[in-house]
Amino acid sequence: QVQLVESGGGLVQAGGSLRLSCAASGSIFSINAMAWYRQAPGKQRELVAAITSGGRTNYADSVKGRFTISRDNAKNTVYLQMNSLKLEDTAVYYCRAAPFWGQGTLVTVSS
Hints:
about 55% strand; globular
């Protein structure tokens, strides 16, 4: 079992920045790739960004150039730096280390 705990969500104005954190505990030796997903009201959950244990990353087209995923293997933590936030980035953000999910953290972008 792996436990994932997200933090860092909140309310921010459009154009602002937030950094999300996801701390992993438990059977962390089994973790390879970690990812951030998000789910906006009335929409399906979608992949935002992912990172392998070796540091390779990929991003959804909608966040490329604005979001950066990183990980600190020593701290078993993955981060999502979100800059130039837009109204459409409003969602619950979930951390994933397959097949496990975190509980989610709400990001609300206001005008």
